[in-house]
Structure formats: structure tokens, C-alpha cells
Amino acid sequence: MSAHTQTVEKGQNTTLLCQESYVCSGTDEAIFECDECRSLQCQRCEEELHQPEKLRNHERTRIRPGHVPFCDFCKGANGNIMHASMTRQIAAVRCQVCKINLCVECQKRTHAGGNKRKHPVTIYHAGKAQEHEEEEVMDEETKRRKMTEKVVSFLLVDETEEIQVRNEEDFIKKLDCSPDQHLKVVSIFGNTGDGKSHTLNHTFFYGREVFKTSPAQESCTVGVWAAYDPVCKVVVIDTEGLLGATVNLSQRTRLLLKVLAISDLIIYRTRADRLHNDLFKFLGDASEAYLKHFTKELKATTARCGLDVPLSTLGPGVIIFHETVYTKLLGSDHPSEVPEKLIQDRFRKLSCFPEAFSSIHYKGTRTYNPPTDFSGLRRAVEQQLENNTTRSPRQPGVIYKALKALSDRFSGEIPDDQMAHSSFFPDEYFTCSSVCLSCGCGCKKSMNHAKEGVPHESQSRCRYSHQYDNRVYTCKACYERGMEVSVVPKTSASTDSPWLGLAKYAWSGYVIECPNCGVVYRSRQYWFGNQDPVNTVVRTEIEHVWPGTDGFLKDNNNAAQRLLDGMNFMAQSVSELSLGPTKAVTSWLTDQIAPAYWRPNSQILSCNKCNAPFKDNDTKHHCRACGEGFCDGCSSKTRPVPERGWGPAPVRVCDNCYENRGIQLDVAELPSDEEGGTLIARKVGEAVQNTLGAVVTAMDIPLGLVKDAARPAYWVPDHEILHCHNCRKEFSIKLSKHHCRACGQGFCDECSHDRRAVPSRGWDHPVRVCFNCNKKPGDL
């Protein structure tokens, strides 16, 4: 301490006096220390100074015996202001002119020369109680630092909105916390380059680089990153900055609102000398989108997952952290008004209403010399986290389920031509992207609503398009009685048998049948003078045509297909009834012309190699070399067998005889003259069978052409069906195609073996339908 410095008090001070001299003139004993006023205050001065609403939230602590305040602007050895997370120095003196507390180093640096060396000072002497208190503070600070030493961040959601944790257990494992621990979520938002990651590192993790920072121009945070703060018991989430160069701007902006929806407290970080309109527009649009789209979904998640903690009682709290360099903080020019009131006035002027947020607080700091002081922000965050009146802590599993539900609901690409760029969070980010093919209007339902069986919906009326024929008929008589019953033109009435319905259709045309009124119209009921049904018995309504849906009044006349189905059924029935006798006669005839060394068909019950038992429809094959019976897979190879009289053309042999082709038969095994005659009969029989097979194959070709001509309009053409619509198996000669009578798609037999009536398509009797259509409730 300089020898020229005037000392007002010498020796140990047993009583600290008020340093404000606002009411008491500096004669009363100090009772409180105010961190933001940077002074010791008596009872009267403390009450009078903090009467304005703006100053009521100042941090004040009651002075204990032997109390000594901290240095007000302490600097380290390198000349920088020490950060709040670093150890603060105890003040040694208080300058009565400058009205600041100084440690020894700061007093030497600031008051060693010039006029300040003559300023009177008061000397502090720390008592044992104060020293013990400081040691306890140091121990607590050290414990907190050690608790955050092993904290690491992880990628929670990437830039394409894909969650990067597999399940709830993986989420808890990466957080490194207990599954039963109740947590809150704190996230940060702001423009790119404003130091969001840096702010989280110094506010929660004592300056450790838990979240990556970088001096490069490119954004160092892509997607959403998370880490667990074991001191405050919170999940800290770092987000990608706004106004950055990105290729998926719409999806990344929507991702920010998902993070906001699961947060209990959000920090909007801005480093600008004045608050920009972008801040208020972002919070206002986020509030509107939260109330419009996310509140309902969060309530549904609570009910669907059986969560005990409500997720949407009210939106998160907001802290606007404003850092300036050259300008004053908000409200400094208006001591009578609090910053929060000025912010609300700014929202009203911009017609933005942040109604979804439970609270909005302003916390500013002015950085004369780096680094930034985050102590005020940390105190404000801790104060908000202690408030459980609107947002209560919850288990990490609940946090993951909420994020998963929002990601499943609001996902998918957003077309650029549908964007409304006047808002941060337009409705297109969260509503269905389907557009009516007839009138071009969009669906107003939430995204991915089709997964829950909810149909498309639009508030505007549609117009008729001949291409899609989007008319719907309703029975006029039922409508006049207060009911709206849809009807469709079809081949026959539901009370007619299939063959009688075809006969009536050939005579009097198609019918329109109402479930309540019966048959109300026949197209050729009279020889002449038949009127249009629209003018007589039905009403017409125009409905929207959504992508992936069928038309409305497509031709449901399926008379030709019914006729083909009847013919195929008769042919199949005759074939199945005659299958048993035919197989028996064929087997007996084959044994009569078989060579003597062949095993009879009646004795072949299973394949001689793989031992697979033969079924009624399976074909038995004889090896021309050994004469045993094999399945097709074990006797598919061919080679000449001259020793048995089969040559020089290759014939069917089993795998064993094919590999042992060099072994010669004994003379006793060579065919005799009688066996040679039988061999010739066998060759003739095989030639006849091959010829008949070719004739049957040739007859199948015109049948395929007839089937395509008889196909109803809503059926997918056969040449476009390459694989089963359900199991994705590719169709081949062995795997037949079948059309579902309800949706018209192509399926294999296993995926479409159910039978059910489809009145909307004109099938009043049980017909083939696929698994998906069969699961639909009500009439098809």
C-alpha cells in the first residue's frame, strides 16, 4: 500500500459502517451487502435504495461477524478481469472517493499514482470467521468443479431431424445419470456466431469445453447436442444457430421448436448493442406454433405413454441474455421501468404475443474488457430452476419419449415451393404436405396423420375435374329424411346371385342401390327415355382428390371380371376333383411302360437322397442310371446313359450317378431285348407328355389377354405388377398374381386369401381381399 494513501481507520475494524450514506450519512452499522450495488448498506439505506421495482431483484446477503467484502474489480496477473467462476480476491481497502472495494493488487495498480493516491481509504481486516467461511466456499467450489470434470456432450439429433440415440436406455447411458433422477431441460437459442456453446460451457461447466467452440467461419454446432450437468441436475442442450448457411433451413428451424417444446428453460443469447426485431419475431412465432401444433401433441403423448408428469401445462420460461459493449443495458435510461416491461412493450409493437412462455426475464451484461461475465446469468438460471410452480422436474425417460413423439409426428421433407418465409415457424413446417390433385389446396391436418388412420382434410371447397371424376353420389330420398348415404353404380344388386346379377346386367344395365331404399335406379330399365340418375334419384358432391387415394365414381361395372372368375372357379373345381384319380391312373400307366430296373411309383414315398416325403402334388423323377426315385432338386442334372440304352441325347440322372459317370455296369445289369422294348415305350410316353404340356402353355396366352381386357378400371394392370404389394415377393411362373377387389393392388395368394364383400366396388358377395383391406373396420 502506498505511503501517501490517507487512512481513515487504522487497526482492526470491529464494526462495518454503511457505505452508501443515502439516508444515514454513513454513520449506521452495515447490515447487508448488495452485489449489484457493490456496497455495504445499513437497514435504512437498503430499504430506501431498493424500493424501485427495477432494483428489487438485487442480490443481497446479510453480513456476518468479521465479514469482509470481495474486490469489486479484481484482475489477475495478466491484467484481465477475473471470471466469476475463478476465485475472487478478498478486499483489503475501500476507497471513500471512488466508492469501490479493492484488494491489495488492485489498490496498487489503480491508486498508486496520480490524484488517486491521495484518496482516503478504509482498511479491512478479515476475522477468523470470515477466513473459515471462505475456506468452506472454496471447498464447495472445488467439489462442483470435480463433479463436472467427466461431463461430455453427445449428438442428440442430427441436421436431418433423425434422433441419434437408439432408445430410452441409450439416452440415459449417454447422459450418465440415474434413470430415477428428476431433471429439467435447459436449451439455448440465438444467431450463429453469438457464442451459444461458449455461454453454456461457462454457465454450467466452469469454462470446460463440453460443447465444441471454434474460431472458424463455419458453424461449429450442427444439429442438437446434449450434456448432463450433475451440479444443477439439468440436461443442457446446445442448438444450431439461426441465420447460418445451411441447405436444410426449413427442417433445422423446425428442429429448434421441437427442442423448445421439451425444454423447461430456454436462454436466448444475443450479442448486439441493441435488441433486434429477429429476437422478438422468433419468440413470437415460436409461441404461436407451440400453442397451435405442439400443445395438442404433447397432451396426446402424455395419454398414450401413460406419463404421470404433464408435458404441456405451460411453455418454458425464457431468459434473454443480452451482452453489449458500447451501449447501455436495457432499462438503464429508464430507472423507473423494469427491463421486462420494456420487452413486453416491444412485443406488442411488433404484434408478437409470447403467450406460450411461462415467464420472460431479461439479464444483461456490459463487457468493457473481455472475457464476458456469466455470473449474473448463472444466478438467474439457478433461480428459475428452483421454481417448480409451472414446470416440474421429470425422469430422463419422460424427456426422451416426448422428443421421440414430436420427431415421429413432425418429420419429413418440406417442399420449398410451399414455404411462407414471412414467419420463423410457418404452418407448413408442421402440417401435412399433401395437396389436392384437383384444386391444389393443401391438407390442414398435422404431419404423418395417416399413420393413425386420420383422413386428409381441407377447409376450402374442391372443384370438379373430369380427369379424376371426383364426384360422390348420395341418395336423394335419404338426404331429404336427414341422412347422408353414399351410393355407387355397380353391376348387380346385393340381393341377386352372381349369375342372376350378370343376366340382369346384360338385360337392364348397371344399378344404383341404397342400403335403406334398395335399388333406386337401373340404367336400361326402359326401352327408351331412361333419365340420368343425377336428375332423379341421387345428389352430387365434389370431394378432394388426395395423392395415393382412389377415384370416386370410377367404372365399378365388373361383369366381365365376374364371368372370368366364375369360369376359373369351375375349371379349378373340376381340376381339383379330378386330381386324385388322374394322379392314380398316371402313376399306374407310368409303371406299365417303365423299364424293369425302375422302382415302381407306389414304392417311392420319399426322395432317395434328401429323404423329403412326396406330397400329392409333388412330381417323382426316376434316375435313368440307377432307377431310384428322386425329387426335382436332387435329379436336375443330365447326361447320356448308353449303358442303360439312353443315348446319345442327355437324360435325367441323380446327383450320385452324375458324379460316378465313369463306373461301368456289369454285363448282368445291361438291358435285355424285352427291356429294350419297354424303354422305347417309355420314350414315346415322354414325348407325348411334352407335346401336351406345350399345347396347354399355348392356351394360357390368350387367357391373359382376356383377363387384361376384363380388368375393372381401378385395378392395377398386370404388366405394372412386378412384386406382391405386401410381402414384396417377385412374381414368376410359379407365383401367381391376384388382385384385391377392394384396393385393386396385386398380391400373392398368401397375402390375399381372405374373403369379404366389397359393396363400394360393386362386389356384394364375399370376394378376394388383401390383409390390409380386411383389417379395415366397417363396410369396404
TrEMBL record:
Q: Name one GO cellular component term.
A: mitochondrion
- Main location (coarse class): endoplasmic reticulum
- Could you tell me which residue ranges the FYVE-type domain spans? 601-662, 718-778
> Gene3D superfamilies of this UniProt entry?
P-loop containing nucleotide triphosphate hydrolases (3.40.50.300), Zinc/RING finger domain, C3HC4 (zinc finger) (3.30.40.10)
Q: Which UniProt keywords apply?
A: Endoplasmic reticulum, Golgi apparatus, Lipid droplet, Metal-binding, Mitochondrion, Repeat, Zinc, Zinc-finger
Q: Where in the cell is it found?
A: Endoplasmic reticulum; Golgi apparatus, Golgi stack; Lipid droplet; Mitochondrion
**What processes does the entry annotate via GO biological process terms?**
lipid droplet formation
Which SUPFAM superfamilies does the record associate with it?
FYVE/PHD zinc finger, P-loop containing nucleoside triphosphate hydrolases
GO terms for MF: 1-phosphatidylinositol binding; phosphatidylinositol-3,4,5-trisphosphate binding; phosphatidylinositol-3,4-bisphosphate binding; phosphatidylinositol-3-phosphate binding; zinc ion binding
Describe its partners and assembly state: Interacts with RAB18 (in GTP-bound form). Interacts with BSCL2 in a RAB18-dependent manner. Interacts with ZW10.
This protein's name: Zinc finger FYVE domain-containing protein 1
List the taxonomic lineage: Eukaryota, Metazoa, Chordata, Craniata, Vertebrata
